[in-house]
Amino acid sequence: MAKRPATLGDMRKAYGKHIRVRLGAATAVAALLPLTPTPPPAAAAPTPTWHTCVRDAQDTPGQELDRAGARCAEVKVPLDHTRPAGPTITVAVARIPATDTAHRIGALVVNEGGPADPVIDYLLDRRAALGELAARYDLVGVDPRFAGRNTPLDCHWPTSTYFRGAGEGRAGFARMAAFQRDLAAKCRSHAGGLLPYASTRNAARDLDLVRTALGEPRISYLGISYGTYLGEVYTAMFPGRTDRIVLDGVHEPGHLAPWAEYATERVNEDALRHWAGWAARRDAAYGLGATADAVLATVERVRTTAVRRPFTVGTYRIDEHTLPLLVYGVLGDDLAPSDDGIAVMVGTLKEAARSGHAEPDPGLAEMLPGLFTGQYSAYGSTQTAYLCADTPGPRDPEVYRRAVERSRAAHPLFGPVVNDVTPCPFWPAPRERPTAVDNDVPALMVNATGDPRVPYAEARAMHAKWPSSRLITVEHSYRHAVYGTAYGSTCVNGAVNAYLADGRLPRADVTCPAARGDDDPSTGPVRQVP
């Protein structure tokens, strides 16, 4: 199975990804005031037929799932939940049954984020994080409608993501507005019949039909990044149907307006400076600068060169629109904190800026095709369809241009990326407004203080809205999504798994140190905050 490029894999986590924004102009906010959802007519309870997870001889994830005892199925759901007797689609489901049936807790449903990230093919990664606890749960992966193993929503884009930097001045912004308008037009031409039905609210409705199909009166839920928003919407739309809830990289729905990444320049710059300090202490290996300021100056020289004199990496042209995105896309990933991929990438870009050309390192070789070709068009198309349904934003491109200009002087690298125009101003109007998430249920929330994808302030805000929740804070960490084996925090994993095991939240909020390898040698014990 082809793996998603790293850039897209990280930018999916921007939904809040993708939905981590600050309230902007009053007119934009007023247009997005949420409505309390009205339950649609009940659909007939589906009955899944379980079968092998292997689709073909090249389906390595399916083979691994089969070896782990998983079975897969397709659950039929209405395309339009307001017309339960109308046309239907299917959502793919995988289930690894509990092996300790005497102590079985129930079904634990996972969502990896995105929106539109596949879940099924990465289900075993989450099983590893559970450790011995995995034996007590049916671990369930549900690929959201149009994503993963489902029939795709594909706009036939010449790129796999709409993310770009606005470039310099009105001319650069005008190019990006034309680019985004063209992407939206392609979606209307190639997938117009599906666009109205790709949304988090519909994904939540599908999830409840999967719950019914599994025969579960309630489900436990693990949501990562955008998956936290899906979990929040599900609990609001279907109160009383959840058991234990873990939200990792927590979105606060009040930050849905006016658009996806608005005003996240500062947290991304903080993460970049943290990495720059790491690289400076290894200047002998990477040659990017002996201090954090020197490393950041290297990055800035590469940026300004891309503006004045675009260069090539392999066969790809790196310019004012794409260079900032490369740096943005690798921050906050869920690889080992000491991974040197960013340093290697910046070294390649430094050489290309100096000489006009460089051959791609392995990381760029994986990322660049996703940026410059339609290899993963369906992924980017589906992600954008969810985004524009959930966070349509202002319709006037000038609102975005003014936001870019306000940000550019102080934040020349990230300001033109997180404030740039998207396809959403040119998208068909969404059928439904965002869900009012006002259902206070017990939940365990997890966030790093330096998370560049979901600012820590959002986790604190969501925690305050749910008085019965607890918050695990990972101090001095600049990672996005910290539960699991990739990050390696025994403090976080222990607290999450203890809650999933007995259903009892910590008596107070929990503070964890950064994991080893995050340039913080502390691995001190868990600390509970009164």
UniProtKB/TrEMBL annotation:
Keywords: Hydrolase, Signal. InterPro entries: AB_hydrolase_1, AB_hydrolase_fold, Pept_S33_TAP-like_C, Serine_prot/Carboxylest_S33. Pfam families: Abhydrolase_1, Abhydrolase_4. Residues 1-44 form the signal peptide. GO terms for molecular function: hydrolase activity. It comes from the Bacteria. Residues 108-267 form the AB hydrolase-1 domain. Residues 413-512 form the Peptidase S33 tripeptidyl aminopeptidase-like C-terminal domain. Gene3D superfamilies: alpha/beta hydrolase. PANTHER family: 2-SUCCINYL-6-HYDROXY-2,4-CYCLOHEXADIENE-1-CARBOXYLATE SYNTHASE, TRIPEPTIDYL AMINOPEPTIDASE. Belongs to the peptidase S33 family. This is Alpha/beta hydrolase. It comes from Streptomyces crystallinus.
